[in-house]
Design brief:
Chain lengths: 273, 305
């Protein structure tokens, strides 16, 4: 556990510059923020919807003009309020928070489910020119919910992107862990990066352990202070906001009794995932 | 830190050094608390726990002020019946005194929670009669002398372990309240809880916190807390635990000189990490050695002259 600098914790008010619908339930919001534009892949920010709520979001991308993007799925009251906002409306931003994915130089595999693809696309953009090879497995319930397929195919080449859908409407029918069995048996990866539903990540981790490969996984927990004080996001002895959200294989091994099993609710009670 | 200069006795509890984890920080699980003990804390105070589970307030629950943090968590906690498991585990893994912070909506509730906490192994309880942002508990109890005395008496009647009382700074004269708490049987007084505060956004004209008002902690409140500890020491004989914006050894020594026998640290963990306890304890030790004191207890209240 370590400390951090408070400057980025002060929220900044900024206007939404651009809103793009990715599909029926996911929108990408872009805004200007100097501090978050310096974020690294895997880090997250806290987005305040004035008068409604404040939510943690993985950063999807940044550019030199201080533009920052986040992909938001409509899942509850706060995200619905955000989806109802228009361009030029005001939001509050603090962060970036947490650690980031490591920059592996060898052969890497990225596995993302749902909006969990967002931070991995950010990572892929940074890694593509530096690694020996990069493969990407993405998954969603249906073809329309499959995020960033075109972007990933043009970035990594069609042959390096495997799509899976639960209903079989695009690519392999099944969960995105399905093609992994054979993939990990045939190829050696120096690092497997993963983000998405925790049960999916747990399965990826178990497969990687079986094949003796390393994983970096982005985990999610209830987030309040985001600066390592309130204890809302603890998993094992780690605070996801400060010691995570990216956890390596050796850390995941220590928390197998909670990872993919239980999380803490608003009142701090452990509930099943 | 290998010397005995730093060890203190607080209401009979032995602390290897006078730094303690303040209530409200990281206190759900024994596992995270063990990280704080490794960071050097001489004792642990848990998050406040009540009779029933509470979800707390919607975000934002924390907002950064210029020299501190304003928070309105809303006392989220799993309820004492669930929390006793964490107390039992904490007692097996932590080798420092464990103080369970408790709150209630009546004297009976405080007593019931205290009884369960002590039965599960708490070395002491700290009554949260000073949370500034939850109605009908916290400071609404600590600001009312009669209700406060009633709560303390009720708890004292049912538990044999030491009872600490955490005082609110949001009163006209904290020494008056301290005297009432001491007379009602408080074994130690923690001063202070957060100072009631608000943050308003200029662009949207909206209070930032989900609960609108919250409590200010961190460096901004240190001089206020220090003065209140100083005032309390002039009036009461029970041990005082200083709390409010302590971030380095000088801050801690100031509180000791004002009359505190121990200090609690919370907000500084965000900026300095859990090793802040070790750093502060070491700094106090070096200072004591330089000034040729044999024990930290020798400088308690030394500024009263």
């Amino acid at each position: 556990m370590s400390g951090w600098h408070t400057a980025d914790n002060k929220y900044r008010i900024t206007s939404i510059k651009n809103i793009r619908s990715n599909n029926l339930t996911v929108k990408t919001f872009t805004f200007n923020d100097k501090a978050c534009a310096k974020a690294k892949p895997g880090q997250f920010l806290m987005l305040w919807i004035p008068g409604v709520d404040e939510i943690p979001l993985s950063i999807l991308g940044v550019n030199e003009d201080d533009k920052v993007s986040v992909a938001v799925k409509k899942v509850g009251e706060a995200t619905e309020a955000l989806h109802n906002m228009k361009e030029s409306e005001l939001i509050g931003i603090r962060g970036p928070f947490g650690n980031c994915f490591s920059a592996s130089k060898g052969r890497v595999l990225m596995v993302g489910g749902g909006t969990g693809i967002a931070p991995l696309l950010f990572l892929a953009r940074r890694l593509v020119s530096k690694v020996v090879g990069a493969s990407f497995v993405i998954g969603a319930k249906t073809k329309t919910e499959l995020l960033f397929l075109d972007e990933l195919q043009s970035l990594l080449g069609k042959e390096n992107v495997v799509a899976t859908t639960e209903d079989g409407s695009c690519g392999i029918k099944g969960l995105c862990t399905k093609p992994l069995e054979s993939l990990l048996a045939e190829e050696e990866f120096d690092m497997i990066y993963s983000c998405g539903p925790e049960l999916m990540i747990r399965k990826i981790f178990d497969l990687a352990e079986k094949h003796g490969m390393l994983v970096e996984a982005s985990l999610e927990r209830l987030m309040r202070c985001a600066i390592g004080l309130c204890g809302s996001c603890v998993i094992g002895r780690h605070r996801v906001c400060r010691d995570g959200p990216i956890f390596r294989s050796e850390q995941l091994r220590e928390i197998v009794s909670e990872f993919g099993v239980s999380k803490r609710d608003f009142d701090g009670r452990k509930i099943q995932i | 830190m290998d010397s005995d200069r730093l060890s203190i006795s607080l209401t009979g509890l032995k602390l290897a050094n006078p730094t303690m984890l303040a209530s409200g920080i990281l206190g759900y699980s024994a596992e995270t608390l063990s990280g704080i003990v490794e960071g050097g804390a001489g004792a642990i105070v848990t998050k406040s726990v009540g009779l029933k589970p509470r979800k707390g307030y919607p975000n934002p629950t924390v907002v950064q002020a210029n020299c501190g943090l304003i928070n309105a968590m809303g006392l989220p906690n799993p309820g004492i019946d669930e929390f006793v498991d964490e107390i039992r585990e904490a007692k097996t893994v932590l080798n420092v005194p464990l103080i369970v912070s408790i709150y209630g909506f009546s004297a009976e509730e405080y007593a019931a929670v205290a009884q369960k906490a002590v039965k599960a192994g708490a070395d002491a309880v700290e009554l949260n009669v000073s949370c500034p942002h939850v109605k009908e508990t916290g400071s609404e109890i600590g600001q009312n002398p009669e209700i406060l005395a009633g709560v303390i008496r009720k708890v004292k009647a049912v538990v044999k372990k030491p009872v600490f009382v955490k005082l609110s700074p949001n009163v006209t004269n904290i020494a008056d309240i301290a005297e009432i708490a001491a007379k009602a049987g408080a074994d130690a007084l923690t001063a202070i809880n957060t100072v009631k505060a608000i943050a308003i956004d200029t662009e949207t004209a909206i209070p930032v916190l989900g609960n609108k008002v919250g409590g200010l902690s961190g460096p901004a409140v240190k001089p206020i807390a220090l003065r209140q500890v100083y005032d309390i020491y002039e009036r009461v004989k029970v041990p005082i635990i200083g709390c409010g914006g302590i971030a380095n050894w000088r801050d801690a020594v100031e509180f000791l000189l004002a009359g505190a026998v121990a200090v609690q640290i919370g907000t500084a963990i965000a900026t300095k990490g859990p090793n802040v306890f070790k750093a502060i304890a070491h700094g106090i030790d070096v200072h004591l050695k330089k000034k040729s004191y044999r024990s930290v207890e020798e400088i308690v209240g030394l500024a009263h002259r």
